[in-house]
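Much of our argument rests on the idea that a fold can be written as discrete symbols. Part of our work consisted of pairing the sequence of a single chain with a tokenised description of its backbone. No coordinates are needed to read the tokens, only the vocabulary itself. The record that follows shows the chain in one-letter code together with its fold in token form.
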Amino acid sequence: MVDIVDKIFAHQGFSKAKEELTFGSLYYSSVTDSGIGKSYYWIVVLVENIDEILKKQDQWFAECKQKFNFSDFDKNTSMLVLNNYSEDFETWKKKVYKIEEDPYQFKKYVLRFTDEVKSELKRKSKDGEVTELIKLINDEETFKLYKQNHKLTEYSWYNLLYGLATKLPFLNLEAIKVTDLENLFEETKKKIEEQGLLNDYQELESKFTEEIMANIDSIELEKLLTILKPLNNEQ
């Protein structure tokens, strides 16, 4: 899995730090926006047990600061955690939610995979070539497969594919996918208006921020009900 991610970062113009960390690798990229230079850092770590992430993140952060003298490292660093997933899925989701919601040291993204699914994705993408991955991400039939099956318990290569696209935001989908989703939302909104439920819809929509939607599968029911409680009280 590390080799696929390495290709993705290289394709996106990131450089890999020559000095290896004891726990993973550092990638960095500098861009200029409106004449102001800004750097982005990604740490990639492969773990078998995600329980160690929060326990070791302070130690890992200190090692990064010791080895790399980047003045803006504290503000612009994300961590991609590659987890060879083997435990109960519901238990795993709860752990991931806790990790990704943790505000300390790094902005953390957890990507699960299995050896079987990783091998299948590599077969589909000519050994993980980035241009092939992007073609698959933008392929209408692949996207339909994902939409129809992504909530099923069976984890497939297209789940891993779109997991990569979600966790690494620079792997963007083509406009056709955005248009497809926008059309779906507009169609739903039209039906809601026809049934006189637009105010309720708009209030509900305001509760679901981008961050909540990105983690909707791992949010516990109790927390979701807490988010929606003000709306329930109005009815």
Summary: Residues 206-214, 230-235 have pLDDT under 50 and may be disordered.
